[in-house]
Structures are given as structure tokens and as C-alpha cells.
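User: New here, please read:
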Amino acid sequence: MHKWYEDRECSEGVVIGGQVCLVRNISGYSFESRMDPQDQEELREKVFEAVREEESRLGLYFEERDLSDLSGCSRTSLIGRLAIPPLMLGTSEKVGLLLTPDEAVSILVNGTEHICIQVSCPGKHISQAYETAQRVDDALNAHLAYAFSDRYGYLTASPLYTGTGLMASYLLHLPYLERSSLTGTYSKELARFGFTLRGHFHGSSSAPGQIYRIKNSRTLGMSEIELIASLERLTDQISSSEEKTRSERDKDQEEIETDQTYRAYGLLKYARELDFDETLEYLSYVRSGCQNHIWDCSGDMDIFSLMIGMQDAVLISGHGEEEEGEKADVRRARYIRRLLPGLEA
């Protein structure tokens, strides 16, 4: 089935997509780090049952997955496909996942917190994603009593989530701000407003492919609506700055970039080995080429989908790309050659 990150909007414009995560714990149960396997299993079954009772009203249908027996590669694949927040998986023995076929809505049970509801969206639709997350949250709350304090809000094992329990983020493609050495400046400014800007694939200031994630770093002291509005406003400012920096290139810079873009495409299309970071860099050039109308990208040029799919764990778990003794870089190059469409320059 078509996945949310395969949508055309993810390969167009500065904003790739967004995610909303609601963290909840159930009253009457210890936090995950202190729960025994029996309580974990009981909690997982209660959440699964509540979701099954609410599916038709929500208009969302979930596949059940027991993550306890999955290999590390399969778990990493789910994180790489953005179905699970990387900091939420934890080490619990009875981890469960409910996931829609398009992987846009997931409910993780017995991660680092009892429940993590995550909704992903292509493009700038974080408000709609939040509304969907709220509907799922309300549906579960009708069956399960959340741990809540009138003074502190939703109670969580990690102080990072206490309050609204809301983590919201956008994925951004910022090649021109990075090449102008401006991403570090924005990162420092965003910290003043309770937000971070970090590389998505490595989770640090390093951002191969110039893919960044902007997200809130606090949940206390702001309502959900205020947090979403702040994220939208700050994302708009960064997007405008990226577009302005791109538009201010001179003719010589454009010609150099056009040559680099074609070179990147040629390497992607014909190379027999590609490591992860260099592939991200080449795909970034190709994505910029689409935005700059260097070539026609109205067809199947789904660059962000390629960035997701060419990760090692995703290649093995999702595409059956593993052959005994084969190097990861060979698998990646074959995958890119097969799916990167031809050009009509």
C-alpha cells in the first residue's frame, strides 16, 4: 500500500512532512522501567482491545504487531520508516505496535512510556495530524484512565514529556541555508523558544542530505495549540529564509549547481557501490534540481521515499535486498538504480 512518505508533497518544497506524538501513561500501573512482564502484557492487551472497539468510529484500521520477538534489524526498520519515534522504543519485554497500512498512524505500547500515539503527514499538515492524534487519544481515554495531575498535566516517566505530553516536529530540506552556514545560527535562535533544529538521519548537528528536524524541546508551560502554532510560525520563517537564500544565487552559482546536480544524478543512476551519507548528499542535489526546475519531476521522482528506503535496515526488512555476504553499499546502489527514474532534461 502507498505509504505516507511516498506522497508527492514529501518531495516538493522546503517542508517534507510533519509528525505529532502524544505520550500517555495509564493510572494504576507503574512506569515502564518498574513494570513486570505480566503487567506489561495486561496493559498491552487493554490498549489493543480499546483500539479494536474504536476503529470503526475513528475510521482507522490497524495491524497488530508484537515487537518483542522482532530482530534488531526489523525494529530499526520501523524507526527508519518513521513508524516509531527512536527514543520511544525502550527495552520492555512486551512491546506492542498498532500501525495503519499507510504507516501514518501508530500506537506504541510499552515503549519508554505506556503509550505513544504518533501521526505523520506529508507537507505542511501538522494541524490535521494533531487533530487525528487527538481523536485517537480521546478514543483511548474513553476506555483507559490516564495518569494526570491538575498541577503538572500528563504524568510521564521522562520529565521531557510531562505537561502536554506532546512532541511535534517538521522535517525540512535546507541545502541553501546549510551551504550559507546559517543552520547553526537558526539552531541557537530556536533554542530560545524551546525548539531544536538537528539533522534527522544522525540526530545531531551533522545533517547529510541537508535533512533537518525542527521539534519542541519542552512541553510544560505551553498548551497544545500554542505549541503547534509556534512550530508552524518558526517553520514558516525558516522556509522563507531557505527560499530567499536560494533565490539570491547569481548566474555563476546556478550553472555550477546545475552541473553538480547532473553529476549527482549520474552517480546515483550508475554507481555500483554507494555509502549512506554520500547517497543522501546526491539525493539532496536531485531534490533541489526538482525545485529549481532543472528537469521535470512531475513523474515518479519521489526523492524522500528513496531516502527512507535506502537505509540498511529498511532495505533488508522491507525490500528483501539482502544476499549472503553482500556489502550494504552494493545493495543500496542496486536499489537506487532500480527506482531512480530516467531523466528528460
